[in-house]
TrEMBL record:
This is Uncharacterized protein. The chain crosses the membrane at residues 42-61, 68-86, 120-149. Keywords: Membrane, Transmembrane, Transmembrane helix.
């Protein structure tokens, strides 16, 4: 016997309405943590080791002092960029309301990197303009892509990602724990509506968030005041 699952019609208007209800509701609990990849330091070390090996081999075959200066300069610039930008940390803020949860992730990168990038972009624009004046319009044949990228990079700022997840009051949820990919005992947890498991809106109503092991009991207790958690799966390790 087939059971027909009642799935709400998820239009853009319905989505905006649901999200606005969550945003307008009173925040009853808030927590903060840092998202940092478990292998962040290892990744940076491997990149640095690879660069050292490359320049070491280069210097072995061409013992020019310029290679050493180039090696030091690139390491000085590229290693901080690798650490902060290639595998970015995030300041994570979660808020619980009676209507749903709000998640904000802000890039945890020193402002000097954004200022330096914007400065390099303006320099790139000036270089393209000078090239056009000296060489003529044909200069943009090779520099067109660089000029376009430079204009885009002038607006390079710290990004904030916001996610709004509404609660479904008349459905049963299953608690799910996921494997941790972060440092500082931070793990991702979630509550999914089983009836929506094989429907397009399953991810829309999956209440997923990250927190430390110490924060989880209080967060879990408050969320269960607003949704019906009928089943459990193992916590993440």
């Amino acid at each position: 016997m087939n059971t027909q699952v009642s799935v709400p019609e998820y239009t853009e208007e319905y989505k905006q309405q649901q999200h606005q209800q969550v945003l307008d509701a009173e925040v009853v609990y808030q927590w903060n943590c840092i998202l940092r990849n478990k292998i962040k330091e290892l990744f940076t070390f491997i990149i640095g080791l690879g660069m050292c090996m490359f320049f070491g081999v280069t210097y072995y075959f061409n013992q020019d002092v310029l290679v050493l200066y180039l090696w030091g300069g690139i390491m000085l610039i590229f290693m901080p960029v690798t650490y902060f930008l290639f595998d970015t940390d995030y300041d994570y803020k979660g808020q619980i309301t009676p209507k749903g949860i709000i998640i904000e992730k802000t890039e945890r990168v020193p402002e000097i990197f954004y200022k330096a990038t914007r400065g390099m972009a303006y320099i790139g624009i000036v270089v393209c303009v000078i090239a056009a004046l000296m060489v003529g319009p044909l200069a943009f044949v090779g520099a067109g892509a660089f000029a376009l990228l430079s204009f885009k990079m002038t607006g390079f700022h710290k990004k904030v990602q916001t996610e709004v997840i509404p609660f479904v009051r008349d459905k049963q949820y299953r608690y799910m724990g996921y494997e941790s990919f972060y440092q500082y005992t931070v793990c991702t947890h979630g509550y999914g509506v089983e009836e929506f498991l094989r429907t397009p809106i399953y991810g829309v109503y999956e209440v997923a968030f990250s927190c430390t092991d110490e924060q989880l009991p209080e967060i879990d207790k408050i969320i269960r005041q607003y949704i019906n958690v009928a089943k459990e799966t193992e916590n993440c390790g």
